[in-house]
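Need the bound structure for zinc ion, inputs here:
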Amino acid sequence: MDLTPIGKNAIVQILGEESQKLLQELRFLIVGLGGLGSFVASELVYLGAKNIILVDNDRVSRSNLDRQILYGWHDVGKSKVLVAARRLKQINPFLKLETFDTRLTKINANYLIDKADVVIDCTDNFDTKRILNRVCYNKKRMLISAAVGKWEGWVASFPFYKEKEIPCLECLFPGDLETLKEISENNEPTLVTTVASVATFQVNEVIKLVSGEGENLVGKTLIIDTKTNQCVIAKLKKNPQCSVCSV
Ligand SMILES: [Zn+2]
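Answer from helper R.:
Posting the output first, comments after.
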């Protein structure tokens, strides 16, 4: 049975059968089903990912409908992970989906991250990012983190399963990249185009991971400014005093 009716041809033609197989085998944990998470989940399904775990405790609100593409008017008030799962299954009914209608916390992070090979951080607060970073580091998981502001966002990859000497997310803050923290804690409105751009770069990290082609954003952060059309790659330094990766 063909378990990836969507995107099979493109994936095989562009990335090869091994990449497709890996996409089907890897377990993806998407934390946060807001703007970023909506795009990331959809794009992963279109690529042919098969095993997806969704975590979010939010309900759909009217104010989400300008950028969170998995939800519609009739979903207001409903659980985001349940609505998202239903929509993703419409795209590919063969998906293996797990949903957790809960917030990722220090208490459940180990349990949730144990279920995954690749963790995709689509959260909008730095406390959760910190927990994800620490647990992914300890459990040697691939973490792909991102955040969005009004017009801008950033993406960085942390393949903790293979590289010990790379900086982790904790190394970045506080530091000379303080603006990244501001973006990460942004509670201002965000444009759907910004969210789509940043989420796509996040999923691109998955494509590079499974294909071995290109270069992952390891030890660096891609900063995207959709207003000025500028993308800047900032090199990240490992902090020798980092409480996560330098102990
Ligand atoms: Zn660190």
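Comments: The first strand starts at residue 27 and ends at 31. Residues 167-168, 170-171, 239, 242, 244-245 surround zinc ion (CB under 6 Å).
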